[in-house]
Design a protein that fits this description.
Layout: H1 8-15, E1 20-25, H2 38-51, H3 81-97, E2 102-107, H4 116-125, E3 130-135, H5 140-149, H6 182-186, H7 190-197, H8 210-229
Parallel strand pairs: 1-2, 2-3
Helix pairs in contact: 2-8, 5-8
């Protein structure tokens, strides 16, 4: 249930009976031929699809994340980790004020993952709360489903190419791109990263069939929903 489809009266009433909510985290960064908003689109849709039968409120995806390495690509927006932690903490404080005590964070961008420490600190500072941090694309069942299709899968490759992250009228290359040199990437500045990865795909084919992608998505939705339904202790 998207929070944008509700008014405040409805949320006030709902939280009296169910203190769960979902906060998606995204990013605005290059994804080769795909949308610059891939991570936000996927985190938001994953959260909404997982929550749908449970009517758990889903807040809008935070559209900016920590992605300094892609600043050589126009359109990318990056926050420092210290800023990101402060923003996330204030969001969680707002949710707490309105009665939410169990928060599932559905994260769509690997650069955001270190913020888990700030989430743990928030729980420690607010007894009676729980905050689960879920990197949906690399959760065990989902990652196994990806690897079963093609072990060569990475950033901006086929594994992020869904009908809802594709841009109309843009053709995808037909070949499989070799993996980039990850060791060199770790020590590179944004301009060097751009030179190393070219179009932005880290390695792998650019697109698989919608049927294959739909099957992977279904696994990921079910795995995410399990976190909402399971024991929060």
């Amino acid at each position: 249930m998207k929070i944008s489809d509700s008014n405040w009266f409805e949320i006030e009433e709902r939280v009296k009976h169910d203190d769960r909510c979902i906060l998606p985290l995204g990013s605005t960064e290059q994804h080769a031929y795909l949308s610059l908003s891939v991570d936000s689109i996927l985190a938001q849709k994953m959260a909404v699809d997982a929550a749908e039968p449970l009517a758990v409120p889903v807040f809008p995806a935070l559209p900016f994340g920590v992605t300094p390495y892609f600043m050589g690509f126009p359109g990318t927006v990056s926050l420092t980790m210290s800023t990101y932690e402060l923003v996330l903490r204030e969001i969680l404080d707002s949710l707490y004020t309105h009665g939410f005590r169990r928060v599932l964070i559905v994260n769509g961008h690997g650069g955001n993952s270190p913020v888990q420490e700030a989430c743990a600190k928030w729980v420690s500072d607010n007894p009676g709360t729980a905050c689960r941090f879920h990197d949906w694309w690399r959760a065990p069942k989902t990652w196994a489903a990806v690897k079963a299709v093609d072990p060569i899968a990475s950033h901006a490759s086929w594994m992020e190419n869904f009908p809802w992250t594709r841009l109309a009228g843009r053709e995808m290359p037909g070949e499989q791109k070799p993996y980039v040199d990850f060791e060199r990437l770790r020590d590179s500045n944004p301009q060097e990263v751009r030179a190393l990865i070219g179009d932005g795909n880290y390695g792998g084919e650019y697109q698989k069939s919608d049927e294959i992608m739909g099957d992977i998505w279904d696994v990921a939705v079910a795995e995410t929903r399990e976190l909402l339904e399971g024991d929060w202790v």
